[in-house]
Write a structure and sequence with these properties.
The structure is a single chain. The protein has 112 residues and is mainly β. The protein contains one helix and seven strands; from the N terminus they run E-E-E-E-E-E-E-H. The strands form two sheets. The chain has a four-stranded antiparallel sheet, with no helix packed on it. Strands 1-2-3 form a three-stranded antiparallel sheet, with no helix packed on it. The protein is globular, with a radius of gyration of 17 Å.
């Protein structure tokens, strides 16, 4: 039988953590001590890295972290620029054709 690993991303008012383990009862890694919600993780296109983002609602901001191994995360807020204030969000890949349709429907952002 092929070895199987379990992976879970946990998010609650007091934690944003993850676990990858051979058994579902193994320990998980805590990513922040702030109260957070709306966590999401996605692969960074063209890279071997992942982005973990979450709403630090008590501070009124989103926080972004980066990881190559989903175990060690580095805060990269300084590398992110947003002209909006999401409360929860998700990231999905889109094609160039889909991007053009979005521009046509909603306009193209300044400086894009």
């Amino acid at each position: 039988m092929e070895q199987c690993l379990y992976a879970v991303m946990l998010e609650s008012a007091n934690e944003c953590a993850y676990a990858v383990a051979e058994h579902v009862s193994d320990d998980y890694k805590q990513q922040t001590k702030d109260a957070v919600e709306g966590a999401g993780i996605f692969p960074l296109i063209g890279s071997d890295k992942y982005i973990l983002m979450y709403d630090v609602y008590m501070k009124g901001k989103y926080q972004f972290t980066e990881s190559a191994d989903l175990e060690h995360f580095k805060v990269i807020d300084h590398a992110i620029s947003m002209d909006f204030h999401p409360r929860h969000g998700t990231v999905i890949p889109i094609t160039q054709k889909e991007l053009q349709r979005l521009f046509k429907a909603y306009g193209k952002p300044e400086g894009f």
